[in-house]
Amino acid sequence: MNDFHFFCTAPRNAGDLLIREVDEHGGTEIHEQVNGVRFRGTLGTGYRLCLFSRIAGRVLLQIAHFACVSEAELYEYSRKVDWDDHLGVGDTFAIATTVAGTATFNRTGALLKVKDAIADYFMDTVGSRPSVDTASPDIRLSIFVAADHATLYLNLSGESLHRRGYRQTGGPAPLKENVAAAILLRAAWDQIAADGGALVDPMCGVGTIPLEGALIAGDFAPGLLRAGFGFEQWKQHDQSLWKVALREAEERRQAGADKIPAIFGYDKNRHSIHEALRSAHAMGISGSLHFEKRDMTTVTPPSKVLSKGRYSGLIATNPPYGVRMGTKQDLTPLYRSLGQVLKTSFSGWKSAIFTADKELSLATKLRAEKLNTLYNGSIPCVLAQSELFDVDVGTQSVGKKEIYEEQFGNRLKKNYKKIKKWAVESDISCYRVYDADMPEFAAAIDLYENKWAHVQEYAPPKTVDRRQAELRLQVILDVVPDVLGISRKDIFVKTRERQRAGRQYQAMGGSGVFHEIREGGLSFLANFTDYLDTGIFLDHRITREMIRNMSDGRTFLNLFSYTASATVYAISGGAAKTVSVDNSNTYTEWARENMNINGFFNPRHELIKDEARSWLTRGKSRYQLIFLDPPTFSRSKSFKKTFQIQYDHIDLISMALDRLSSDGTLLFSTNYQQFKLDSELLKGAKLRNLTQETIPVDFTRNRRIHQLFSISFEPGH
Questions:
Q1: What is the pLDDT of residues 225-238, one digit of tens each?
Q2: Domain limits, the chain
Q3: Which of 57, 144, 345, 561 has CA atoms 20 to 30 A from the CA of 111?
Q4: Nearest to 607 by CA among 627, 629, 628, 578
Q5: HSE, side-chain direction, 13 A CA sphere, residue 191
Q6: Span 394-496: which CATH code?
Q7: Taking a C-beta distance cutoff of 8 angstroms, is the pair 291, 270 a contact?
Q8: pTM of the model
Q9: Segments of the chain with pLDDT less than 50
Q10: 3-state secondary structure of 380
């Protein structure tokens, strides 16, 4: 069966969930992009995603892809498409247009050129042309135009797939159905439901979260409820293939109907509850859900929840927020009450609170185990997931909390006074103010530009009482704003696992919000929410300055370059040429932005998206200065062998030395604290340990936060 190229749209930051679905339904060569997923697959794959996907917005099948740099070329190549393979002269069509990264094209102009190309194609071939119908077309087409290319798609899904077909009316400020599904899947509702746990939404509005929860728990394909799809009038539509998918969906729906656990939706608005009931009835599952008019403060857990899993159930809700309804000042008491209800009544449950306002989320006083950013349409929102306990540990231990606040507050004040004086004298605006100085307050706190605090909690071992760890983190979050003079909303909290050589950190889900910071007279972009690290390693401040001082007139190679902060320093130091290699699209683009904001646009400074080890084996160019800062552990599709720094560092260093000029210097660094350099295997090389002289004042509590070695060839090499 023929393969096609597809693109599926998705809510921003839900791409990983869509990838899981694409893979499940037979997609291959899957690539995540900002607003969706690109992949290859059969027509059956496209049909199945239209029917089964809970996350996709639209399923687009590629008709043509070509290079073009002008509207004339867009028209010319669009006219060459065999349009009668896709629609007939009696069909109606509509075109949606997206233009990105180019001033040559605009949406209206691109749309008109493609529309004219289709019309002229049919006039030339049959003497008549299909009509445009933007309201209810037979065929929907999509165009994506970039600076030097264009892609034409057939919209298989038709209307956006978030319109499931069960909604009778919109209701006030509805949550998009595929966003609700993403919230539930992020919170592992599929697993909680399989274990028999319940779902409660105490402010359900028109019931989107409970309704999507029922579809997930019952293995109910959301496309079964739709009136139609965009492929039904397509000339290449395979009705028999579509029927196979429909039959499977119906069989799964029937088999899953008895698996839907207790699901409850409450709201104080009678009209909203009425709309939720109408939707449940349209779905044919009204007997599986309970909707009731009730104020959030009176909501209690359902009785007889028979969960076999870790949690009794999931509280998932999308409370009002200022963008939608009400002001922040008006809504803060609501969020505070929500947090109190959950802490006092839902012991043993998990909560997932979705809001556009991080400060309102903090008002619940619930500690977020996970914090993700997810877009509801164009609105960036925060999804805060928490594990609930039987009482508020802060209320239970008021006396102990006050003692902790005094102890931690005194230490942080002492540190800040000392470090701030040094920072001002050294013209440093981003620095560490606390690094687990008191073992019971196991966290690192970095202050950026005297505006933002990045708090990294070191995950407590299992031997530490969970509630006490919770209490101490709450103390940190309460004390930091007062001592550092910043707002609570500008504190960003992460949990860092104890370092192991077999673990690689992943993205945490993204807000896409960047903040400009300064170091060494240069600018860099920091992101405090989307990844465990922020985009710049502050402990390598002296290392970067060393690279700047060594770079004048030299060629510089940055391997595992991350966001290329070292490269920016090298360019500012006068490097003749730089090459930065990293295997992440995200970090490569981030590096490009770091170079752009410093005005470094010269083509002599190259950014390469590639696996560093693979790249080293393919070239012969030599460099006078190389910075090699690999991860502790790495697993890459493009380089099949797993990398572990302790076992593989000699091979990696040897590969890098093969690209070092005879008079050059290789700077090798690692942050693996148990690392031991096998210097015996580097005989013939001149080796110097620079670790202690590159540990900054603000990192002296942990002198093994990184190790740095200078390696060069002995004279006569």
A1: 999 999 999 999 99
A2: 4-155, 177-218+255-390, 394-496, 515-713
A3: 57
A4: 578
A5: 8
A6: 3.30.750.80
A7: no
A8: 0.61
A9: 171-173, 324, 391-397, 499-510
A10: strand
